[in-house]
Fold this sequence. Notes:
single chain; alpha/beta; Urease, subunit C, domain 1; 14 helices; 22% strand; hydrolase; Metal-dep_hydrolase_composite; metal-binding
Amino acid sequence: MTAQTTLIKNAKIVNEGAIFNGDVLIEGAFITKIDTSISAKSSDVKIIDAEGKYLLPGAIDDQVHFREPGLTQKANIETESKAAIAGGITSFIEMPNTKPQTTTIEKLEEKFAIAAKSSYANYSFMFGGTNDNLDEILKLDKSAVAGLKLFLGSSTGNMLVDDPEVLEKIFKSTNLVISVHCEDEGTIKRNLEAHIEKFGDDIPIKYHPIIRSEEACYLSSSKAIELAKKTGARLHVFHLSTGKETSLFSNKIPLKDKKITAEVCIHHLWFTDEDYDKKGTFIKWNPAVKTAKDRDQLWEALLDDRIDVIATDHAPHTLTEKKNVYTKAPSGGPLVQHALPALLEMHHRGKISIEKIVEKMCHNPAILFQVEKRGYIKEGYFADLVLVDLNNPWTVNKDNVLYKCGWSPFEGSTFKSRITHTILNGNLVYHNAKFSEVKHAKRLTFNR
């Protein structure tokens, strides 16, 4: 069977800090030519006329929770990866706090097997560290797994790594990227107890960022960074939520040479504590959405390259769960379908350039995790591509939300930009709200 050849014509190609008009030739799974004008060599070539739309590399989301196995009433790999494709995210790295947790190589391989059958997007997984699985960590094939995830704050089951000796051993023993959730558990526990004493279980949601405070975040992040500097570990701090934490990170050297890096999530760039009155527990995340000042400082650090990556921390829960009182409503929300449109909305508002969005959502995750041949529009790279119409408004509502949980924190928001085409490994998998019936996802590989 001859490999499909596709020619994208008349695109505004966004890559490595530049936007230029051109065509892209795709043969099989790969980009084979990029030029100002390419002619189709035969009638068999599938031509996509971009009509001046922006052509972006597919985004790589370095932090999602797709809830499979064990929590599939909320979501699963198939439903959420499909929503990701509609949102221009062509590759994801999924977290280990499923049921059972991904803390043994056997459980890791079981997840890869699920994704191989059901995922719409390219996939990899984080391996979870615990207080007692160092032997399993040492057996990992570093070219086959995205990295190691440690919860140094809120978690489920036994995934809170709170033994300092174990933590130091893990930091010393692996050269994998160690991604961490940083919130100090002791600080949060004290704050929560004080608020329960005052309000009972029905604590007003506006106190969430006071319970899960700036102090809790900074204390944990600064300790993790201190340990990374002491041990030489390769540390990546997930979902910064405070302005204070941004002072812990540097823009003095290129990302490829950094040993300590940071990520910010779309919800911390969009919402503030002023939104709790309207959105309630639907914007309850860990770490918490904080003040407008925090949001401004996160933007500043993102744009000056102290923060390296934008991700989603996509973490769906059912509507029933989210409608519970404060102490019983879980933290997290679904975001993969709407993160890129929301960022493009910020571009329309003059907050961020399209080139910078591509750097933070496509290029930098590929550099940081050493993802092989993805994250760029380059000859010889996999053809993971997204066409975006910057002037095709739509409003998020229940009817167009694709998450299994059936809701979005962006409901009611109107976005000016729309993803019209998603190409995965050379195949058109999404076009004008219709999906390919055939799945073309591949397991991510890493240059290590």
